[in-house]
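Entry for LARABZUK complex. Fields follow.
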Amino acid sequence: MTAPIAVKICGLRDRAGIDAAARAGARYVGFVFFPKSPRHLTLEAAAPLAGEVPVGVAKVALTVNADDAFLDALTARVPLDMLQLHGAESPERVAEVKARYGLPVMKAVGVGEASDLAALDLYTGVADQLLVDAKPPRGVDLPGGNGLAFDWRLLAGVTWKSPWMLAGGLTPDNAREAVARTGTRQLDVSSGVESAPGVKDADLIDRFVAAALTAD
Ligand SMILES: O=C(O)c1ccccc1NCC(=O)[C@H](O)[C@H](O)COP(=O)(O)O
């Protein structure tokens, strides 16, 4: 049986965004803990926000090469359902984080060309989910959330045993095409549902989720 399509809205920073994502039918909401990001949240800001997320919507914390001290503080203060590792974490580090915190882990891998896909195999069976994202262009400071898509034709005929999500440059206008072309059952979006960097737009969230959920 084909899995139903699930949407993750990443980089939420306020109650209005969470409400919009939940109302639209998103399955996951993402909080970014990366100071260089326009979507960065402090632990103090994230804790009450995460507490507002309705039951049934998974709360995902995105970190980049975070150490145990930060992850200890994060998991102690913010109620979470999943950790998203978006840096250069090795498969061993992913396994360590999973064991230490007892939370499912999603590992992001940047894809720009066919040779990048091999890295995903290293995390299959180690991470609970894979996030297949666009590789940031050279010189760009953000490892994700750049609003850029990779060439989805690279995924033709590719499958992984672990559940995976597609990310990178998704918008309300290309969500259906992304599902059709890649066969993904999970879509992760950030810039494509923003009116400005870090500012989520309820109408774009609505349109994105509606497009994704009717993509079949
Ligand atoms: O969103 C960020 O600012 C960010 C910062 C550091 C690492 C990852 C980041 N975002 C990753 C995501 O999960 C995004 O949803 C994903 O890369 C897609 O982003 P976009 O192309 O903007 O939709």
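NOTE: The chain has seven helices and ten strands.
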